[in-house]
Specification:
mainly beta; four-stranded antiparallel β-sheet
Length: 124
Amino acid sequence: EVQLVESGGGLVQPGGSLRLSCAASGFTFSSSAMSWVRQAPGKGLEWVSSIYSYISNTYYADSVKGRFTISTDNAKNTLYLQMNSLKSEDTAVYYCAKGGRPLGVVDRDDFGSWGQGTQVTVSS
């Protein structure tokens, strides 16, 4: 059974940093594309970033490029999202998802499995 468990969310001031983690189990993590997707209050799903660690490729939404970094620790079966220079518009529930960069509008069916989500709130 695939399991994805996020952690690391919280309340942070604008300009601050957070690192999200996603512990994965039940599949071959090292050969799987992984993504982060977020959902702000009252809005739809927004793709944030994807990583294809087996070919060392990463992708970012324009809204987070240069501020967020996606990475993996294959020995720990863990996906990370380092978020720097956080803005109020980054406030959302962040989900870890099994699968690569989606085409077009994000839909839950674009990914094989989802975590439960972790809340990130950027506010002074």
